[in-house]
Specification:
With 317 residues, the protein is an alpha/beta fold. The chain has 11 helices and 7 strands. It has helices at residues 2-30, 32-62, 69-97, 109-131, 159-169, 187-200, 219-229, 235-238, 242-253, 271-274, 294-299; strands at residues 65-67, 139-141, 176-180, 207-212, 258-265, 286-291, 304-307. The strands form 2 sheets. The chain has a 5-stranded parallel sheet with strand order 4-5-6-3-7. The chain has a two-stranded antiparallel sheet with strand order 1-2. The termini are far apart.
Amino acid sequence: MGNCCSIQIGVKNFLLRGWVFIVGHANYVCKLKQTLPTLSAALQELRAQRNDVQREVDVAEQRLLKPLEQVQLWLSKAETMITKAEKLIEDGPQQMNNLCLGTCASKNFLSSYKFGKSVTKMLQEINDHVSKGAFKKVAESRPSASVVVRPEERPIGLESTIEKVWSCIVDKDVGIIGLYGLGGVGKTTLLTQINNKFSTTPDKFDVVIWAPVSKDYNVAKIQDKIGGNIGFSDAFWKSKSVDEKAVDIYGVLRNKRFVVLLDNLWERVDLNKVGIPKPSQENGSKLIFTARSLEVCGEMEARKRIKVECLEPEIYI
């Protein structure tokens, strides 16, 4: 008798669990009339929020700020969800036609069940994603390296020239300094010493930028070197045109006290094309370059032109 009761209870529990399972799955089908319009409304809200966040990001990028990674990830996920939700809504009418006179019965119950479950799941995901899209800020200032210390050689006999250059740097009336001389006299060594001295001298400049030029200089390459020092280093930025890069560089440097060191000029470099604001007493910035000829110093409008010469042999003794 006891065994018989136990079997009956077991069967009842089994049937009850089975009924709960069936009802739970049938709900995905029964509620399609409610969940599909709700999904459509949620999709509309997600699109609007996506557009708002993207607009904020666009404005931030115009101000040369860097979008936060979590914001970019949110936008990427939003795009994926929008695409999936649009497909579900597109398939909605066909799935509704499978239902028999608005009941929970379906011509293809398995298909209707899977579809209804996908709609419910997508609705929950969109609601969760929308709740995460209220960002206090979408971007931050791009990091910049104040001074990158470069490997250096011992500046034999250049000490006095270094001091002469440094006195020009601290002179408020001097914005552009040209160092000229024959090849091999130590111009690059001198410029390296100046660069590294900024790292040990508590001074007034926000960023010090080193950019090698060359005989056949390329504006885009100079821009990429400068960009790497002020937070522009990703593939998207490097793919921009020279004019676009110039606007970005100018937008950052115009708000900073900068030092730009250009090594090995063979001809005039157009600062406007690169995006370098012209140093002046007002902005307090400096441009220091090396060149082979005094003529280039003139073309670059150097306020101070310092000749770098080889030392006489007896000075080394």
